[in-house]
Amino acid sequence: MSESAVASHVEDLGGKSRSQWFWAGAWSAMRGPMLVVAISLIGVGGLARDAGFSIDIAIASTILIWAGPAQVLFFGAVAAKASWAVIALSISISSVRFVPMVVSLLPMLRTRRTKLITLLFAAHFIAVTVWAEGMRRLPGIARDGRLPYFFGFSFICILGTSLSTALGYVLVGELPMAWAAGLLFMSPIYFIATLVRNARQPLDRYALALGLVLAPFTEAFAPKGLDLVVLGLVGGTGAWVIARSVHGRAQ
Amino acid sequence: MNPALDSGLWPWVVLICFGFLPSEFWRLISVFLARGLDEHSPWLIWIRAVATALLAGVVAKLLLSPNGALAVLPLWARVGPLALGMAAFFVFRRSVFAAILVGQAAIISAGYWVAG
Predict the structure, then answer these.
(1) Which residues on chain A are in Cβ contact (under 8 Å) with B37?
(2) Domain-wise residue ranges, chain A
């Protein structure tokens, strides 16, 4: 702590330049996470086509919304001819889940000199994959290298996923059922494996277990559309209480 | 009535007003919420737990109330491959790649088994 206070005026880049950190981030995304997020969002292109949109709107939805569930909701609701107010509201509710992700990741990214506009821009790229990988990778990266690393990582993820959205748009309906099921299975298996790998402290494990166990109950009893937010608050707070009572305040 | 969605400016208005902005709102608000918190704040420990539970819930929902091709498979054919994938994860020293490979092989096999 005192070390960082003394060093706060000196750039802490850990011996690399900014652009080297950017490419390090880009490269680590290419080595796996990009492929996973791209494959798991292939289906979005097909949904956009079914809803009657052109391919450029399908690709733009990935770049602008950058949230699989919200995109699925958007194209699904337009196809079902829901009213615009209902569409906007349900998308907004599904994206409340970004709040804990952005709030927990940003303090790792910023330095004292980081501009507000940079943070607003960075927040746009935070979605499940970038959050989970960021929480794991950023602590090991020199303070001033984190933002360029994050941007390199996110740009590659969003670029690969834009291409897969286009691919899905072209390929819709061509895949056999078993392979289509495999595409849809990509998110659950990747998310759960990443969460377990990230869960180094008891608190993370309790939160993970409670989230899985409580999901059927919140889906049945929480207000429609808000069940995930209720689940996060109940499961996360429950895990926090358990961790505190079992392991003490140090948690 | 919805005007045509396949050409002109209207689809862009729809995407930005009813897709992008309602979602982006929360990310922007969160930047201001995160302003006063430092990396080691006790609040962040709780917030991380909330985000973790929420994401675990996303996985459970994707498998318990699935869409499309996943919905064609019975519950055992959705949960089984997840369990096999996680077994591979631990066998191969916490490898996410092994989990995906084994899980995918299992679910695609299950898909062919169910489809006949």
Answers:
(1) 103, 107
(2) 15-198, 199-251
